[in-house]
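Pasting as-is:
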Amino acid sequence: MPCLTPRLAIESAAITGPVSMFFNDPSASENKSAEALGNALFENEKVEDWMGLYGNNVASIFFVTTAFLGLLSKASETRGAWSAGVINISSMSGQLRISENKFAYNSAKAANIQLTKIFATELALKKIPVRINAIAPGVYPSEMTGEQGTHTLPGKEASKIAQGLRPIPFDRSGK
């Protein structure tokens, strides 16, 4: 993979001409100009972090599911149709349309959810009797929320972490 830098984008534009369209979901409001925003986002991310998150949340699901598919299908034959299944753990963050300042995490969780849907559809179309589902938990005390070791988070804290996008029905985090 070539070394990516903001300068490379500028040099590419000098060769190919102006960029007429680019899709992105910045949501970092502290940067007023597109250039400042792009540089700030770029500087806060590492390719290795993205690859690690996608490896853990997408590639591992694909390879582990495919490795066990034959065994799962045999289990459904033995125990009854559709009795075997896979449950992928995702996150509500994968269903949001904003970054929550976690671009890699949120997009990896979205890919996790999409891969689950693809597997479920493909297996159903091929009449392979294995269920594939995903669970997308909301906010709960964890290393990522900075609250590991806490039994629950109060509603205000949970809503703050979720950035007020979803109401917290029980006025506390999951446990």
